[in-house]
Amino acid sequence: MSQAHKSQTADVHTLGEVNPSQADPAVLEAVLSMLAEAPAGARLDELVRSPALVRLGAGPSEVMRALAGLHAARLVRLGPLRRWRLTDAADGSDTGRVGPGGKALVAVPADVRRAPTSSPDPAVAGGTVEIDGWAFAARYLAHAACVLAEEERARTDIFADRAGELVQPLLPRAPWWPETGERVVLRIERERLADPFQGALARRAEDEVAIVWGLRVREPRGSDVGVWTPLVVWPALWRPEGDHIEIEFTTPLPTVDTSALRVRGREERRRIAEWLGLLVDEEEQALATVDPPELGRRLGPLLGGKLREPLDPLRVRRTMPLSAGEGIYDLFALVLLDRTRYGGGAVRELRDLAAAVERGEFRETALATLFADVAAAEGDGWLFEPLELSGSQLDAARDASVQPLTVITGPPGTGKSQVVAAIAATAALSGRTVLISSRNHRAIDAVEERLRDLGPGWFLRLSSPDGAPAPDWQQLCQYVLAQAEHPREEREAGRLREHLAELDAERRVLVDELDRWFELADCYAATEDAVERLGAFGIDDSKQLLERAWRLLKPSWLQRIGEQLPLIGPRLRARREARMSDLLGRKAPGDAPPEEHLQRIIRLAEEALGRNELAAQLRGLRSREGIERRLVELAAEIRGAARRALAPGPRPRLDEAAREGLRALLDELQLAEATGDTKRMRKAWHAHGRHLLARVPVVAVTNLSAASRLPLTPGLFDLLIVDEASQCDIPSALPLFARVKRAVVVGDPMQLRHVSRVTPAREVELLRQQGLSLEAMGGWLASLRSLFDAAERRAQRRHFLAEHYRSHPDIASYVSRTFYDGRLHPLTSSGALRPPRGLRPGIHWQHVEGEIRAARSGCFAPTETAAVVEHIARLLDAGFEGTIGVTTPFREQARRLSDAIAARFPAEALDRHQLVASSIHQFQGDARDVMLVSLCLGRGTPRGSLEFLRREARLLNVAVSRARVVCLVFGDRDAARHSGIGHIIRLLDHAERRGGSGDRQREPFQSPWEKRLYEALRARGLVTVPQFPIAGRFLDLAVPEVRLDIEVDGDHHRGPDGRHRIEDRWRDIQLRAIGWEVSRFWVYELREDLDGCVERILARVRKLAART
Fold it and tell me: Which of 336, 362, 599, 886 is deepest in the core (most CB within 10 A)?
């Protein structure tokens, strides 16, 4: 035996005497690095003397333990001359099993394959050529899948004790990062992956992986388990390919987690982003635009002592100790995303939809309303509302029953859920099926509460916040097939539906008659206006004026020739102009030539000539009061009949064809479940699903739950209603539109909106991958737009719910004027509200001075916290029995408020008053009698927090509109006054004016006839109030003591836009609903018999006074 062989055998025997589990991970990594740089190998003494191991203080025994561990993992071998060398496994030829003693992860090799990406049409990508709606739809659906995949992707933080299952270090055999326009795929042998990782990978969807480079290890306080956070992340897709797996980068631009840099403030973030070559963004994550080698060089100086080794993408770590200490490591790895969100099914559906739309499918669904030109439906739809609706709600619900796409804007307290329930009930009674969806459960809860009260069996909820299992469609089929026939109830239900149709037909005739009334009233108002203006010129006879005026404006041919002659022409023209002035009775105002002024007078005279004819037509119409009273009666009759029709539940006739369809659907569902054939299931639903859905016509599901609860079958439902659409993203809603024929989108763009986790910069990169340009996107950017925004641009009908029922009028008036252009009409009954003792209803401002401190996110105000808690204590001490809510724009302040309240008050009091403190985002959709709003506004409010308050005006809308009776705002008055934030200054002004005097000033009389009637009534001893404000409107003349509104018709021209006419249609009905009576008089009635009109008013006042 040679001496060399003896030495080698001795070293191998020595390995058996060493416990590899005691090896130090840092020494393991250093030994591997040394041997990687020594192709000829290294002896034990050479390794011990190496600088890296000397720095670690590793002696021969520590190095020997490391070599023993690496030898046990088949990463090193002992060669001739006692030189240790890397095995092929160390270059990645062995498995990535957890290293010696279970203390480290070992890298496996990854082949790198590059290819150019398929280039989209450069003209399309550049935005110079328009693509047709469906071509755009196919590309946008594919883009939406990418956006939703990133939106729903969980954070890549990993607990160290799960790293063996979720992290696989990689050793690329070539430069691995993708360049723009390049497709990069990593190819890895499947059997080399560690067993725990293989098992976890097999359970992941294709998009639930990421490629990461650089790893930050943290040790959170109070935890003995480290947290691994990737520094640079590329989203990726994985797929099995024979005995390999392939990992494909989905974008060349990775996100960089800059939280390790401890950036302070917006300006510092901007400077560091420029230094690193990042696309600037509001969040801590940003997109890297430089390649990894350059990014590593730029990050190095910023990370400083946190780096455990230089970040070099070409010399990444070969092992990763599971017990690694805090710092940043140069690791390249495949990471499995531990998805905690629910969008995987919707992502797959979007990809399937993109391919299907490209094949020409789904074009008869509601997707067409978003991507193609769809005409509005002709005629009016049916409306069988079982719930009481206001005028604007009725108009919206009727259009929703027939139009392809209807958008309804519902400000806070205007009854959005009431409208949704009425639309769904009408559709169900009409034999149609409805899918109700929302991004959150709270909106569905509100609709469910209303629908379940109407009758059993109409409503089926497929997702619930408590995670209850979804209903089983097979069991539902079996249940329906086992049901007995109810012929008598079926006949009664049919009779009630016919009766409802008759009642609604009569109502539509009356609404048309009322619209005709308004049309004539507008025309008559124009003639009255013309008469008044002519009277100002001293003109009484319009007919005679017209005859003389036309002769002057259109002289004979001989007169026209004479005016052209040089000698007598000027005198002839001057004579004609003098006659014009004599006719007008005065000179034309300003520099206007007499001809132009006379033409204006002629137009007025022509309008004035029609006054008598219009007055005759108005006399022939049924009175407005009579029409409105019958409309109120009809609404009550329709509600009663609809409730009787809904009470027994759905009773469609189950004939033999329906039974055969249900049996076929049941068979196909069972086969599809056994075989996993989703296409077969979709075909079965398409052919027979209507027979089952007729028995449960209203189905509710959250956007992201639909994929696991309902098949993606085109036009499965007749109608989709998306509630709270302003908080709904575009991508997750698109598969819902594919399942229905028509859609209704309900939301409020002035409340809190959808906040995307995908940055605009990232979305722009995703657009490029689909060949879509930013210019071609319009309102479709999912990172900036909600579903409501997208639908509002495409809708055939748009409605605004104007009647407000939640808050005291003082609160509602601020919300209306500040956020809704004064369009809300508060109809809340003030008598039903019970304010705290000693505190009037409405908005108040509590002045609080004190320090405002910056937090990691936002700020907090200790003095405001103390003031809020003390005010709650005073409310409870005074015996207030209502509900109390506390809210703030900032999470840190919300946390401190919640802690202070919990420490001060017993749990029983918190429950009794529903007393909670939370951020404004968490409070949306809720309401309390008293709301306390902590603005964290003072002289020390950080600049970033002030900018947040300025930018997010919707936060104040939500906060104030949560209050029913009292809204008390806490903050520094002087800081608010000088903040430059308009909506906060208006809030302070409103509170200081105590609401009532804050209404905009109006002229006391809007027409001469209002003034004449006012003076005539005053002469008879009745003093009225002109322009009396109530319900967001101004009454012409009011007698508040007896709640009488006196209106003068025919003296206000409402204009051609129709908005005022639609709102006025239900005006008197709304006033009567809150206890007022209305008396109306035409101008011609006042002109012909003013004394008689006054007598009628006085008689009605006496009658109302006697009743009170």
Answer: 886
* Residue 213: CA count within 13 A, CB half-sphere: 26
936 and 1033 part of one domain: no
Find which of 71-85, 284-298, 841-855 is predicted with most confidence, using mean pLDDT: 841-855
Please state, in angstroms and rounded to a whole number, the distance separating the CA atoms of residues 264 and 989: 35
Domain final residue pick, 961, 995, 1029: 995
Residues 368 and 283 grouped into a single domain: no
* CB-CB contact of 995 with 814 (8 Å): yes
- The Cβ of residue 600 has, within 10 Å, a number of other Cβ atoms equal to 12
Using CA atoms, how far residue 49 sits from 52, 54, 80, 225, 1059, in Å, is 9, 6, 20, 34, 88
Q: Are residues 184 and 320 in the same domain?
A: yes
Does one domain contain both 375 and 420?
yes
Q: Which residues pair with 888 in a beta bridge?
A: 919
Looking up tokens 């997208």 gives: 790
**pTM of structure:** 0.78
Percent helix, strand and coil across the chain, each to the nearest 5: 50, 15, 35
Around Cβ 996, how many Cβ atoms within 10 Å? 11
pLDDT at 1028 > cutoff 60: yes
Tokens of 891: 């999470």
Lowest mean pLDDT of 351-360, 452-461, 553-562, 620-629, name the range. Answer: 553-562
Read off the pLDDT of residues 618-665 as tens digits, 9 standing for 90 and up.
777 788 888 888 988 999 999 999 999 999 888 777 778 888 888 888
Q: Which amino acid is at 621?
A: L
**Do 207 and 289 fall into the same domain?**
yes
CA 766, 768, 769, 772 torsion: positive or negative? positive
User: How many residues make up the chain in this entry?
Assistant: 1108
Same domain, yes or no: 182 and 282: yes
SS3 464: coil
**Six-digit token string for 380:** 């009016």
3-state SS assignment for residue 647: coil
Tell me whether residue 1088 is exposed, middle or buried, using C-beta atoms within 10 angstroms of its C-beta: 0 to 12, 13 to 18, 19 or more.
Answer: exposed
**In the prediction, which pLDDT does 50 show?**
87
Domain that holds residue 676: 346-483+651-749+786-800
What whole-number distance in Å separates Cα of residue 722 and Cα of residue 700? 10
For residue 113, what are the β-bridge partners?
185
846 bridge partner residues: 970
Which spans in 316-438 are helix H?
344-358, 367-371, 391-400, 416-429
800 and 816 Cβ atoms separated by less than 8 Å: no
Alpha carbon of 987 to those of 822, 933, 960: distances in Å? Answer: 15, 12, 9
- Token pair 């109407």 in the structure block, residue: 454
Nearest Cα to Cα of residue 89 among 109, 105, 69? 109
Q: Kindly report the CATH number assigned to the domain that includes residue 63.
A: 1.10.10.10
